[in-house]
């Protein structure tokens, strides 16, 4: 960059930031030049700004345009994914070449081809001078953003009942109509299983429920507890096959929709979905428990109490199927990034599958099988993005444009993460052995893949 090639007196390592801000040779950069200084000259997308500046190839497929000073303040005051999300969700950063409901191609390019540079002290001083101190002061975020972690203490301690309820309601109580457009008729918000890449979303979700049902060995007359049951898809699938099911969810909207669906399908005598914390289910002696997409919200430090509770709810010989997103390594932080934590899953935590298996064993279970379905989740997210883009106007009407933008960004980014093995999806099948050690399972896997 022209301004960053000039020399200054003294060693940058010995200069303080206030000294650097007074160096007369430092020029003022345009907004696009600041972007170039941080992201490099080989940016695969084009960036333009309201000050008329531009950076990146003119022929680029994607153009990111910063429309306003408010967007600049979002970017400057929270560098990284949080600032980008704020500017994008608020509409201050607009993108051409990618539908807001399906920005996958852009997310893939940014993730794989863009590396953030760490500016030298002189470069940092130039950037700060160019942006101006006023743009480094945070302003109110878009209304879709959840409170930062430190402010959530007012809702209770981390993973207390009240705080968990607030986090679940933030994400799941958008509107049932919104979810119907994105998830499709199955209203299933978890990883599907695909026979081929061309399998429809509905068939893949039906196959996932069949896989869980068969792994658990459910038969007519059995009793199933489905914790974190969402809109009751698993409960209704099992009930149609003669299983008696209790489901629990902390989302009132989910519970109401699920009970209506149960009534429409004539399953009231076998299925019930309660607006309840799973810990408040008094019944026990279940033949099986399904936990599909709940462990992410439990908290890593609560795994042991969680699995011990589930163990206590099963009869001897009963089975547990735990299906959840995981980290590829225990060396990665269990906490979600700022964008996911503030806009999508507040307080969510992920661990590697080995940690889960250890905790399940230590709770008294015997693990019999596990498998990684991360490619299947990438395909599921592909289809959710397609639904969101196809029903964009309806989704905006059912929520608001900022919320719809959050979802487009989150789904596309998650798809990229599953494809590049930044996150995984593991199903773990475990059994509560009898007092004599009998696991009551066949010698070889008994379910169809």
TrEMBL record:
<dbReference type="GO" id="GO:0008168">
    <property type="term" value="F:methyltransferase activity"/>
</dbReference>
<keyword id="KW-0808">Transferase</keyword>
<dbReference type="GO" id="GO:0008610">
    <property type="term" value="P:lipid biosynthetic process"/>
</dbReference>
<comment type="similarity">
    <text>Belongs to the CFA/CMAS family.</text>
</comment>
<dbReference type="GO" id="GO:0032259">
    <property type="term" value="P:methylation"/>
</dbReference>
<protein>
    <submittedName>
        <fullName>Class I SAM-dependent methyltransferase</fullName>
    </submittedName>
</protein>
<keyword id="KW-0949">S-adenosyl-L-methionine</keyword>
<dbReference type="InterPro" id="IPR020803">
    <property type="entry name" value="MeTfrase_dom"/>
</dbReference>
<dbReference type="InterPro" id="IPR003333">
    <property type="entry name" value="CMAS"/>
</dbReference>
<dbReference type="InterPro" id="IPR029063">
    <property type="entry name" value="SAM-dependent_MTases_sf"/>
</dbReference>
<feature type="domain" description="Polyketide synthase-like methyltransferase">
    <location>
        <begin position="178"/>
        <end position="433"/>
    </location>
</feature>
<dbReference type="InterPro" id="IPR050723">
    <property type="entry name" value="CFA/CMAS"/>
</dbReference>
<keyword id="KW-0489">Methyltransferase</keyword>
<keyword id="KW-0443">Lipid metabolism</keyword>
<dbReference type="Pfam" id="PF02353">
    <property type="entry name" value="CMAS"/>
</dbReference>
């Amino acid at each position: 960059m022209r301004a960053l090639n000039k020399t200054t007196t003294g060693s940058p390592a010995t200069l303080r930031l206030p000294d650097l801000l007074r160096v007369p040779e430092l020029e003022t950069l345009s907004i696009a030049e600041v972007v170039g200084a941080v992201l490099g000259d080989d940016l695969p997308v084009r960036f333009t700004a309201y000050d008329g500046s531009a950076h990146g190839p003119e022929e680029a497929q994607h153009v990111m345009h910063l429309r306003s000073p408010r967007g600049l303040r979002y970017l400057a005051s929270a560098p990284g994914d949080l600032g980008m999300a704020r500017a994008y969700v608020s509409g201050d950063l607009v993108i051409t070449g990618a539908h807001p409901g399906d920005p996958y191609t852009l997310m893939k390019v940014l993730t794989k081809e863009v590396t953030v540079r760490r500016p030298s002290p002189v470069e940092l001083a130039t950037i700060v001078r160019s942006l101006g101190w006023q743009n480094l002061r945070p302003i109110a975020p878009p209304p879709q953003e959840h409170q930062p972690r430190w402010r959530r203490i007012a809702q209770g301690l981390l993973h207390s009942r009240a705080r968990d309820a607030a986090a679940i309601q933030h994400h799941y109580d958008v509107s049932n109509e919104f979810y119907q457009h994105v998830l499709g008729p199955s209203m299933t918000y978890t990883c599907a299983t695909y026979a081929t890449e061309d399998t429809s979303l509905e068939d893949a979700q039906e196959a996932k429920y069949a896989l869980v049902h068969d792994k658990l060995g459910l038969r007519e007359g059995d009793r199933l507890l489905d914790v974190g049951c969402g809109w009751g898809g698993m409960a209704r699938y099992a009930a149609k096959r003669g299983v008696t099911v209790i489901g629990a969810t902390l989302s009132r909207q989910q519970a109401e929709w699920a009970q209506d669906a149960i009534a429409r399908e004539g399953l009231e005598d076998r299925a019930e979905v309660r607006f309840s914390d799973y810990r408040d289910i008094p019944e026990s002696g279940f033949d099986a428990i399904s936990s599909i997409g709940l462990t992410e919200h439990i908290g890593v430090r609560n795994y042991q109490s969680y699995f011990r509770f589930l163990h206590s709810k099963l009869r001897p010989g009963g089975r547990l199927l735990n299906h959840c997103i995981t980290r590829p390594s225990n060396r990665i932080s269990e906490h979600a990034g700022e964008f996911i934590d503030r806009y999508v899953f507040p307080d969510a935590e992920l661990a590697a599958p080995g940690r889960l298996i250890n905790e399940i064993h230590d709770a008294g279970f015997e693990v019999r099988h596990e498998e990684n379905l991360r490619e299947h989740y990438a395909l599921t997210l592909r289809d959710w993005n397609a639904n969101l883009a196809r029903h964009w106007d309806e989704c905006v009407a059912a929520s608001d444009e900022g919320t719809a933008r959050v979802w487009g960004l989150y789904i596309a980014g998650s798809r990229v993460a599953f494809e590049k093995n930044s996150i995984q999806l593991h199903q773990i099948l475990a059994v509560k052995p009898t007092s004599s050690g009998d696991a009551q399972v066949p010698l070889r896997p008994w379910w169809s893949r």
